[in-house]
Known about the structure:
2 copies of one chain form a homodimer. Chain A is of the alpha+beta class. Chain A has one domain (9-18, 25-139): 3-Layer(bba) Sandwich (Chalcone isomerase). Chain A contains 3 helices and 6 strands. Chain A has helices at residues 49-57, 122-125, 128-136; strands at residues 28-35, 41-47, 67-77, 84-98, 109-115, 118-119. Chain A has a 6-stranded antiparallel β-sheet. Chains A and B meet through strand 1, strand 2, strand 3 and strand 4 of A and strand 1, strand 2, strand 3 and strand 4 of B. Strand 4 of chain A pairs antiparallel with strand 1 (28-35) of chain B, so a sheet runs across the interface. The complex binds heme C (2 copies). Residues 33, 35, 43, 45, 68, 70, 94-96, 111-113, 124-125, 127-128, 131-132, 142-144 of chain A line the site of one heme C (HEC).
Amino acid sequence: xxxxxxxxxxxxxxxxxxxxxxxxxxxxxxxxxxxxxxxxxxxxxxxxxxxxxxxxxxxxxxxxxxxxxxxxxxxxxxxxxxxxxxxxxxxxxxxxxxxxxxxxxxxxxxxxxxxxxxxxxxxxxxxxxxxxxxxxxxxxxxxxxxxx
Amino acid sequence: xxxxxxxxxxxxxxxxxxxxxxxxxxxxxxxxxxxxxxxxxxxxxxxxxxxxxxxxxxxxxxxxxxxxxxxxxxxxxxxxxxxxxxxxxxxxxxxxxxxxxxxxxxxxxxxxxxxxxxxxxxxxxxxxxxxxxxxxxxxxxxxxxxxx
Lengths: 148, 148
Ligand code: HEC
Ligand code: HEC
């Protein structure tokens, strides 16, 4: 987890200008997830208060101001317990910010993918909306459901 | 996630008298985990403020008042994305409460395992400390490390 420094434009994602939000590591858990090879990651999606409220109410679309953050780590064998896997090194942190006016061209969402606190390149940011749109448009472009 | 009702002794674990703590679903994430077959679960360990403070400070043993909760769900294939797995139905919620006097006989920890908000039987609660002691005694009987 990295401290946000959104004053520096270098820390903002290409295309969208999304930065790492302040204090996201403390946000409430929406759900864990796992991604198989080749990425081989354990993940956790967390949200700000606006996001959590919308999830708990079960209402779509998410309101402006919603921020979703996906933390990801290498999926690593537990040294103490054979059948358990635990987080290894942090890999990417991914962000979706809802602003239906600013991001009208991408379903109301701005996207950012960060490695070691720095945004990845423009080519990677060109893939975000396309995938989310193709697969979960009817859920306001959000994959993750609330873990009961 | 179930509402805590620790006034009713039926809701407390055998041996330890541990109940589901209030509001644990909102607690800060310590780390996700995965458990292979036969349990086949995605998990998330969260902690109360005392726990989080101790983790961030990297200090052992955990102080009295520490509460750790492990949420667990069936590990389920994502319907929208082949390589992703997501939480299915909730399975167990497990709790560890630190009280070095009350639980002196079990390393200072009281244990509780809950299904649908109700504690499981005494036989299951006889296994908790034995396993945690055998494998992670030197980390104050706690497996889960902070996810970076
Ligand atoms: C090839 C498909 C694909 C691409 C490309 C993709 N995503 Fe996703 N994204 C997913 C899937 C599947 C999930 C849910 C499962 C998981 O957690 O991995 C997800 C989840 C997320 C989440 C958590 C909220 C949600 O929708 O569940 C964020 C935030 C996110 N992606 C951001 C990004 C960003 C930023 C980019 C581009 C830099 C991106 N995604 C590109 C497939 C994709
Ligand atoms: C056979 C071994 C074993 C037994 C028995 C066992 N545990 Fe654990 N426990 C683990 C392992 C391994 C982890 C960490 C990986 C994970 O999250 O599954 C863990 C994690 C936990 C955690 C999260 C904090 C930590 O130590 O990481 C709690 C809370 C917990 N167990 C409670 C219980 C309770 C309550 C019981 C008995 C009803 C119990 N455990 C029995 C192996 C065991």
